[in-house]
């Protein structure tokens, strides 16, 4: 979505934009939680693998020094190669199962986001249709379909002694919005003009 599309969407339906951002934020938060869990699981596996590596290095060093294999010890623990291998296999299988589960959760979240996005599109279309229905055809200045002449903008209200009073500013704003009603086809456009 480029800036022009975003601006048009925002002026047509600010509530739909809000809900779309909210839905996307939930997806990002869900993905962040999944990534954090995967990171923590991978970190635990890395720490265990580091321990096994240190055991293997100590075992290799002691074997090189001529120690018989049954006397090789590391921090008071006899490393059992089969147990180490089985432990690694189990941890890798657990991690893979967690990754599959998280992938399924991401798939469900993506489906939920798609459902929400479709709902936003449907509501946006309804809002656009409603705004078209609410806009009276009498806003056009003549039967040729031309827009009314642009009324000058009221002087900005600054709340200081050099500018217009609130009443003068408000009356000028209301005159601008009513005289150029065909320039502001929906409430969002009016709010956008007032905010600018």
Describe the structure.
With 196 residues, the protein is mainly α. The protein has 5 helices and no strands. It has helices spanning 3-12, 14-64, 81-134, 166-179, 187-195. The radius of gyration is 34 Å and the shape is elongated. The two termini are 23 Å apart. The model is unreliable at 137-141 (pLDDT under 50). Residues 131-160 are annotated as: Disordered.
> How many angstroms does the end-to-end distance come to?
23 Å
Oligomer: single chain
Low-confidence stretches: 137-141
Main structural class = mainly alpha
Secondary-structure element pattern, one letter each: HHHHH
What's the story with the biggest beta sheet? none
How many runs of DSSP E, i.e. beta strands?
A: 0
Number of helices: 5
Strand fraction band? under 5%
Please, what is the average pLDDT?
A: 75
Morphology call: elongated
What is the CA-atom radius of gyration, in angstroms? 34 Å
Q: Helical content, roughly?
A: over 70%
Task: Summarize the helices and strands and which ones pair or pack.
Elements: H1 3-12, H2 14-64, H3 81-134, H4 166-179, H5 187-195
């Amino acid at each position: 979505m480029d800036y022009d599309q975003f601006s048009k969407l925002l002026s047509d339906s600010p509530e739909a934009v809000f809900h779309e951002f909210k839905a996307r934020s939930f997806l990002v938060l869900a993905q962040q939680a999944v990534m954090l869990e995967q990171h923590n699981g991978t970190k635990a596996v890395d720490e265990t693998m580091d321990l096994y590596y240190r055991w293997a290095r100590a075992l290799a060093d002691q074997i090189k020094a001529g120690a018989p294999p049954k006397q090789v010890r590391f921090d008071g623990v006899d490393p059992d190669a089969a147990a180490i291998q089985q432990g690694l296999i189990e941890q890798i299988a657990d991690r893979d199962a967690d990754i599959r589960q998280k992938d399924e959760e991401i798939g469900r979240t993506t489906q939920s986001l798609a459902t929400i996005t479709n709902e936003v599109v449907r509501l946006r279309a309804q809002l656009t249709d409603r705004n078209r229905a609410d806009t009276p055809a009498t806003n056009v200045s003549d039967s040729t379909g031309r827009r009314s002449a642009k009324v000058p903008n009221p002087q900005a209200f600054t709340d200081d002694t050099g500018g217009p009073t609130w009443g003068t500013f408000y009356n000028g704003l209301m005159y601008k919005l009513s005289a150029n009603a065909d320039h502001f086809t929906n409430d969002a456009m009016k709010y956008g003009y007032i905010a600018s």
